[in-house]
Design the sequence.
């Protein structure tokens, strides 16, 4: 899918983006200074975000971390993404409008955003110093792509899980795919 920027074409900085509002409930991401409206999601997408969010929230709390949804992650001076779920384990970054120190980011794939999540966002998120894991969760199949590193300065690794558990950097916590996908109707079957 080719993204189409929201009219009018005016380049914004992240600071301007956080101060800007169009007066609607529409969510926007800022990519290289341009605003992109976010489309509504499928039921499977929403169910997976809730299931994963609840599980990550409990795991994050036990590890002394915080969990967010619908909050921007600033990846450059002109790009702010809004991941489905963010876990931050470092000190609170004192900004009310964005997360600057994510530890884990999770995106549930949609057919229209798959390339963006798997290529564009993956490359941008891997440049964040604090990030230790990026999860790409599929809604049409029981499948999670885990991109991780053991320490902030260590190399990145990738592995695809279709069963078992996915390890996360939250004090040895693992996400069981059976539990996450229990009762989820794939988006292709909706």
Sequence:
């Amino acid at each position: 899918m080719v993204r189409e920027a929201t009219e009018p074409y005016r380049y914004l900085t992240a600071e301007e983006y956080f101060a800007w509002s169009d007066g609607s409930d529409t969510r926007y991401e800022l990519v290289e200074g341009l605003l992109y409206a976010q489309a509504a999601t499928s039921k499977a997408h929403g169910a997976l975000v809730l299931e994963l969010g609840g599980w990550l929230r409990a795991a994050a709390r036990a590890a002394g971390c915080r969990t967010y949804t619908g909050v921007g992650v600033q990846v450059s001076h002109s790009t702010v993404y809004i991941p489905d779920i963010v876990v931050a384990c470092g000190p609170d970054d004192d900004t009310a409008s964005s997360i600057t120190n994510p530890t884990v980011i999770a995106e549930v794939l949609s057919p229209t955003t798959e390339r963006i999540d798997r290529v564009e966002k993956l490359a941008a998120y891997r440049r964040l110093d604090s990030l230790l894991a990026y999860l790409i969760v599929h809604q049409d199949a029981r499948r999670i792509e885990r991109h991780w590193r053991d320490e902030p300065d260590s190399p990145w690794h990738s592995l695809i899980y279709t069963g078992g558990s996915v390890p996360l950097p939250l004090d040895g916590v693992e996400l069981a795919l059976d539990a996450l996908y229990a009762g989820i109707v794939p988006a292709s079957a909706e």
Notes: The chain is about 25% helix and 25% strand. The longest helix spans residues 43-62. The longest strand covers residues 72-76. The mean pLDDT is 88.
